[in-house]
Amino acid sequence: MMKQARTLLSRSLCDQSKSLFEGNFKVSPLRGFATRADSSTSARGFSGKDAAKPSGRVFAPYAIFKGKAALSVEPVLPTFARIEPGNLRIDRRGSVMMTFMPASGERKYDWEKKQLFALSATEVGSLISMGSNDSSEFFHDPSMKSSNAGQVRKSLSIKPHADGSGYFISLTVNNSILKTNERIVVPVTTAEFVVMKTAFSFALPHIMGWDRILGQADTAAQGITLHPKTDLPQLGVEWV
């Protein structure tokens, strides 16, 4: 009976995730909240006949739904700028985007009231290195180094449950312009946190752009010249 109940819960969350994110991402301005599906299938050992041609972007967030709020995480790839013929450099560094959404009802979440927090490579490393009793806290100012600095302040806190069963992940956003102070808390289980850490470890070299360096080295070793694509990723992501 317990196993059946867990199976039904899992199916329910999958269905909810599908309806929530398919419906909102199509109309969301965060079209960059995804990775490009422009990698060549032939470069990976597949011909056009063996694999479907990629089109558009791939949306694959890892979502956690709880009673009072939901959390979605997904890598955002860096963008590159051409500095001379055949060479690229990072123009905007990648991140792991965390999206918090408060609940608006039973199994419903308010996308319009979402709050974002972009983890840098170093912050991702801090989260990956966390032990079962460790805590982490990160502070962001979206308008840092501008005349609007200090108007909006964000604080991400990760604290372990007292019984060691998981963590509380909370985001606090203080907006001095609107005079608001919002706080969204999402409790995550140990298993959910392990999934996040494992996925973050896999994504880390990609958000740093190192996958392009290593890919270039691999093709050069095989006597193949890698030409930069002309359609560089243009991710319209809110940098927070």
Automatic annotation (TrEMBL):
Superkingdom as given in the UniProt entry: Eukaryota
Entry keyword Transit peptide: yes
Molecular function, one GO term: single-stranded DNA binding
Record-linked SUPFAM superfamilies: ssDNA-binding transcriptional regulator domain
Annotated signal sequence range: none
Similarity field: Belongs to the Whirly family.
Source organism of the structure: Eutrema salsugineum (Saltwater cress)
Protein's UniProt name: Uncharacterized protein
Keywords: Transit peptide
GO biological process, one term: defense response
